User: Which sequence fits this backbone?
């Protein structure tokens, strides 16, 4: 893969990571006390022009 491709992919993935973390933190703050709770999470990645769908699932633990 070319260096330009690698850089554009890394830039996109960094943006996904940073903005997703910010959105999750805001949602947890807005939910109030979530101590002892866990939340099922799912991230779906699709790319227009490529027949691709990538799904990642997991759990996010609440906070006070």
Assistant:
């Amino acid at each position: 893969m070319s260096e330009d491709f690698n850089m554009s992919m890394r830039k996109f993935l960094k943006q996904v990571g940073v903005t997703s973390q910010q959105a999750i933190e805001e949602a947890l703050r807005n939910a109030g006390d979530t101590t002892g709770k866990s939340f099922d999470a799912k991230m779906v990645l699709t790319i227009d022009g490529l027949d691709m769908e990538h799904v990642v699932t997991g759990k996010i633990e609440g906070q006070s």
About this structure: The mean pLDDT is 95. Helices lie at 3-31. The radius of gyration is 15 Å.
